[in-house]
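User: Run a structure prediction on this.
Assistant: Running it now.
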Amino acid sequence: MPSKPLALLIPLAAIAAQLPDDKPAEQAFRNIQVLKGLPQSQLLTTMFFIRASLGVSCEHCHSDAGFEKDEKPAKLRAREMIRMVRQLNQTQFGGRATISCNTCHRGSLRPEASPAFAEIVQAQPKQENPAIGPLPSARQLFARHLQAIGGEAALKRIASRRMKGTRFSSEGWSAPVEIDQQAPNAWIASFTLQARFISAWDGAHGWNHDDQGYHDVDSKDLSELRQDAEFYRDIKLNELFRGAETSGRDMINGRAVYVVHANDADGQPKALYFDVETGLLSRIAGSDPSAFGPLPHVVEYSDYREVDGIKTPFTIGHLRPDFSTLDKFASIEQNVALPPDTFMKPPLAR
């Protein structure tokens, strides 16, 4: 039996829909004791940070009868640990979030106190590093990616897209997934487990559906939705990612990439990674603030294949320390006739 997806454990949109202002956490949620003063928009990210650091589910500390209830000893222990970490950061590091749960736990419920055995390293002959040469500019990398997928003219001949495949999760469940896109910026993704889960951007507003019903998407999650919905994003990289500068090279999944740092349209820092050999975009990375420091999130694109004259990723991963999904598409259709109401929240739900 697959474990519940994260959205079943915490109906994020249902909570956010009731909290239009970024109030202190204790004013927005019940029974906040040690994270008073934290912006409510950071509370759930902070919980995800703890979940990932300890390698546990939300139910390790929280009761199904109500997340605010103090029924489990683990929740009381977690409060003690939060106090300890915050006190250490305050007294030893000038209030900076230098240490966190992950400093000791590293994904394990019980931190490993014993040092690891020293590894045996065999001497390797020295190899000369090949000359890499000057780094291409961000504008050059953006243009090379656009050319690699087929060019602006070929992309403009496509106005809609339907992608069908399977969504896999870090929690062990999988489900059929369908994503529909319409130029210039409409997008909807859906899959079904115990309930139907939908995320959508209708061109002006974001909404979703989970086991708690329909909700408007809060401002914290709108940026990623709008990024997914930009049908001609590959043409508009210079516009969507401002102040872009190439910062160096790195390795991702065994492949050399160029790294570009920029701010997205909402002013949030992002890093874009372009494959050195193919020129294709392979990753967009960002982070969300929490009480213990930034919680990273990544969108990865791979398995590009040509469909109707343009190359499209057949595998897209949304990776976070607390919860990740991987969409593997079996079919991608271009210029599909989509009904006008495909992306609209149902009338009864508005």
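The first strand starts at residue 160 and ends at 169.
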